[in-house]
């Protein structure tokens, strides 16, 4: 394709994941000239069946499904905990929604007020009511299936656009145990079609949602990239931005990007929107340092890259003395937010319920997993047996697994950050991102508390618990948040409530990088809502 720049346009968007795609579509629909620069390639939809084959065959690595890895995607991790950055990101048209799980929840009202309510971290400069209309629009754009039956969720004005998926068989196994303990189960909003929607089919049950949906029933941002192009936007793939160049007035004048032929170009625009994620956005701002911006662009506060925040996985599982139909559904259909805002609460069940806790804890959500055991292929590959002996062992080991999972929100810490590793470079000679990451004691306590609740439910169900993921062996959910945080004070934040950087008047950020606190819910719906909000503010300035 022709990757030369357009003449000066209204808006240049960097990144073609959900944030960039939604912003570009909204702005193009309103008549603005938009160019989107995406570092990765455009994946043909027809390649998804082949990518599914790669996902389920052990000869292929997880990174190979969406062509991640190598010099282009090099990074460092110098913190207390190693951070496996490439394990769950995609560079390309559609971004990480090409392989995401597809769960989409609205942040709770309390998530915007952690300082006021809990005395920790900081409050957001906006509240749930500010995002409420954008949440509703985002649900319509993505095509969210849900039952609106979560009694702990924030208020909404309308039902979800699509009906919820039926609970899985393993959900029904949990239901009686949860009822006895006074634990409330409810449906999970999913950005996948429970019936035909937006010219995409209903889910056909491939079960490989993460890392690839061959049918397209699960939403991915290439949907809105195509809509943006239909509305007149121009999308250039394989065009990694090397730096943002400012003029004498302190405004961004151009995005300098590279192309596969070895050339570099400058895309000029009136407004620029960064939508390339919580790691690449601070990296780009830090790489854009100049005489006028010696510490990096939009970094007068020194907070670009700071407060890198994650969600931590917690879970437990084992064997049940009956068949559980594991792995027959590729996504989660039931959760529990009962302990989200009150993680220490007790429940009153006929068997004693969940015991309470007086510890200082953060938000948590609990998930009822229906694909929680090893696959027969994995078991066979690691076995020392053959023939009938192997078949007998597989029958004993497969089909009775059941588990719970969950997410815990990490307390934002200034020392967790994204910086540049100048000792290592990518395929264009740029310093790679370096991740410094560690966990605080409050987050560890919350994970331990989540395990306590999970064990109580599993034991009530009669599960022989064989494994637990707790504070000592937890891992990230790969939700990169907080590295260009939002606020009203330019000394304590990078962007203002309109998502525009304090330092640069024509530079905005649409990303989870603006999150002040992470909550404990999957962030994509909030990313989408913020992106639509950002686009509205850019539209107002234009």
UniProtKB/TrEMBL annotation:
Keywords: FAD, Flavoprotein, Oxidoreductase. The keyword Methyltransferase does not apply. SUPFAM superfamilies: FAD-linked reductases, C-terminal domain (SSF54373), FAD/NAD(P)-binding domain (SSF51905). Residues 194-223 form the 4Fe-4S ferredoxin-type domain. GO terms for molecular function: flavin adenine dinucleotide binding; oxidoreductase activity, acting on CH-OH group of donors. Its cofactor is FAD. Belongs to the GMC oxidoreductase family. This is Choline dehydrogenase. It comes from Halorientalis regularis. The lineage of its organism: Archaea, Methanobacteriati, Methanobacteriota, Stenosarchaea group, Halobacteria.
């Amino acid at each position: 394709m022709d990757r030369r720049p357009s003449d000066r346009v209204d808006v240049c968007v960097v990144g073609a994941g959900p944030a960039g795609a939604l912003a570009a579509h909204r702005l193009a629909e309103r008549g603005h000239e938009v160019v989107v620069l995406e570092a990765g390639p455009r994946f043909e939809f027809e390649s998804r069946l082949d990518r599914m084959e790669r996902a389920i065959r052990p000869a292929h690595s997880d990174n190979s499904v969406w062509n991640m890895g190598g010099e282009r995607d090099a990074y460092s991790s110098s913190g207390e905990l190693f951070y496996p950055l490439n394990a769950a990101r995609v560079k390309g048209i559609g971004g990480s929604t090409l392989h995401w799980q597809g769960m989409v929840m609205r942040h709770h009202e309390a998530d915007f007020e952690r300082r006021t309510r809990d005395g920790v971290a900081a409050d957001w400069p906006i509240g749930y009511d500010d995002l409420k209309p954008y949440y509703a629009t985002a649900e319509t754009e993505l095509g969210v299936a849900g039952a609106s039956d979560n009694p702990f969720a924030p208020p909404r004005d309308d039902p979800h656009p699509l009906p919820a998926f039926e609970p899985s068989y393993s959900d029904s196994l949990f239901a009686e145990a949860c009822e006895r303990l006074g634990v409330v189960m409810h449906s999970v909003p999913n950005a996948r079609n429970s019936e035909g929607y937006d010219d995409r089919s209903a889910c056909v049950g491939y079960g490989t949602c993460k890392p690839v949906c061959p049918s397209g029933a699960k939403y991915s941002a290439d949907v809105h990239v195509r809509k943006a192009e239909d509305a007149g936007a121009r999308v250039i793939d394989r065009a990694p931005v090397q730096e943002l160049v400012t003029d004498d007035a302190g405004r961004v004048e151009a995005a300098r990007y590279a192309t596969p032929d070895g050339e570099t170009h400058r895309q000029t625009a009136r407004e620029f929107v960064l939508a390339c994620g919580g790691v690449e956005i601070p990296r780009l701002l830090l790489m854009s340092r100049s005489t006028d911006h010696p510490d990096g662009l939009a970094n007068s506060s020194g907070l670009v890259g700071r407060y890198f925040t994650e969600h931590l996985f917690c879970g437990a599982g084992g064997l049940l003395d009956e068949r559980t139909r594991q792995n027959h559904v590729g996504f989660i259909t039931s959760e529990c937010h009962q302990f989200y805002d009150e993680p220490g609460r007790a429940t009153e069940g006929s068997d004693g319920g969940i015991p309470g806790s007086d510890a200082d804890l953060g938000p948590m959500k609990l998930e009822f997993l229906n694909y929680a055991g090893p696959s027969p292929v994995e078991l066979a590959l690691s076995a020392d047996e053959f023939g009938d002996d192997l078949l007998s062992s597989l029958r004993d080991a497969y089909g009775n697994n059941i588990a719970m999972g969950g997410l815990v929100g990490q307390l934002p810490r200034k020392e967790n950050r994204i910086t540049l590793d100048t000792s290592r470079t990518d395929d264009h000679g740029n310093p790679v991102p370096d991740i410094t990451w560690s966990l605080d004691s409050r987050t560890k306590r919350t994970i331990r508390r989540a395990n306590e609740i999970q064990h109580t439910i599993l034991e009530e169900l009669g599960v022989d618990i064989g494994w637990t993921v707790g504070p000592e062996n937890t891992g990230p959910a790969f939700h990169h948040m907080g590295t260009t945080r939002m606020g009203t004070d330019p000394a304590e934040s990078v962007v203002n409530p309109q998502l525009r950087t304090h330092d640069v008047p024509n530079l905005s950020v649409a990303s989870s990088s603006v999150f002040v606190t992470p909550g404990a819910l999957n962030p994509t719906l909030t990313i989408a809502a913020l992106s639509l909000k950002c686009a509205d503010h850019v539209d107002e300035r234009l």
